C-alpha cells in the first residue's frame, strides 16, 4: 500500500502532521563533527612540530600519548554503547510500522549515511593524505606518530562508529532491512572498518622491513581494497530509494520530482 493511498482523507490525523524530513539534528551533527576535526587539525599544527618529533621526550607523552590512551577506550565504549542503545530501543514488531513511520526512518537512515560519509572523508581522505605528507617530511621513531594517533586511532574508529550507527539503525527501525542482511550495507559498514586491523599489518611491515612510505607499496594495498568498499553506499542508497518509491506510490513520486 502506498503512502499516498493510506493517508488519503486523513489530513486531520496527528501522525500525518509529523515532519518526515527534519534536518535540524543532521546539521548539528555535521557541524559538530567538522568543528571537532578542525580543532584537532589546529592542535596538530601547534603541537605536531613542537612536541611530536621525539617519542622519548616528556612533552610527547603529555601532548600525544595522553590522547592515544584516552581516545581508544572512549571510542570502544561509544561504539558498544551506540549499538546497545539502538538495539535496546529497536522496533520490536515491524508489522505495526506504518508507511509514514517507515518513510521517516528511511530519511533518518540517509542522514546517518551522510554523516558517515563526512566522517569517511576526514579519516580516509584528509588525515590519510596528511599522514603521507608527514612521512615524507619527518623520519619517525615510533609507530605512534602524532599523525597516526589522529588518523588511525581517532578518525578511523569515529567513522566506524558512524557505520555501526547507520547499520543498526536500518536493522532495528526499517522493516525492509530487518528481514535479513543487506549485502551492500554489510560491505559499506564492515569494509572500511577492516582498515583498522590492516593498520596492525601495516605498522608491523614498516617496522620489520623498514619500507619507504610510498602509497603504492604492496603493504598499503589493504587500505585501498577496504577503503573502496565504501562505494557499496550506492547499493544501499538504491535500496533506500526503491523503498521510498514503493511507499510514495506513483502519484507521490510524480509529485516529488514534478
Protein model, in words:
Helices cover 74% and strands 0% of the residues. The protein is an all-alpha fold. The protein has one domain: Particulate methane monooxygenase subunit c2. Chain: C (Glutathione S-transferase Yfyf (Class Pi), Chain A, domain 2, Up-down Bundle).
Question: Which secondary structure elements does this structure contain, and how are they paired or packed?
Answer:
Layout: H1 3-6, H2 24-51, H3 58-88, H4 99-137, H5 146-173, H6 175-178, H7 183-193, H8 195-209, H9 221-227, H10 233-257
Helix pairs in contact: 2-4, 3-5, 4-5, 4-10, 5-7, 7-10
GO molecular function, one term: monooxygenase activity
Keywords: Membrane, Monooxygenase, Oxidoreductase, Transmembrane, Transmembrane helix
Transmembrane segments: 25-43, 63-87, 110-128, 148-168, 180-199, 219-241
Low-confidence stretches are 1-17
Query: What is the overall number of helices?
Result: 10
Which shape, going by the Cα principal axes? elongated
Number of strands: 0
GO molecular function, one term: monooxygenase activity
Pfam family, one: AmoC
Protein name: Methane monooxygenase/ammonia monooxygenase subunit C
Keywords: Membrane, Monooxygenase, Oxidoreductase, Transmembrane, Transmembrane helix
Main traits of this protein?
single chain, about 260 residues, mainly alpha, Glutathione S-transferase Yfyf (Class Pi), Chain A, domain 2, 10 helices, about 75% helix, elongated, transmembrane, monooxygenase
Task: Explain briefly what this protein structure is.
The chain is mostly helical.
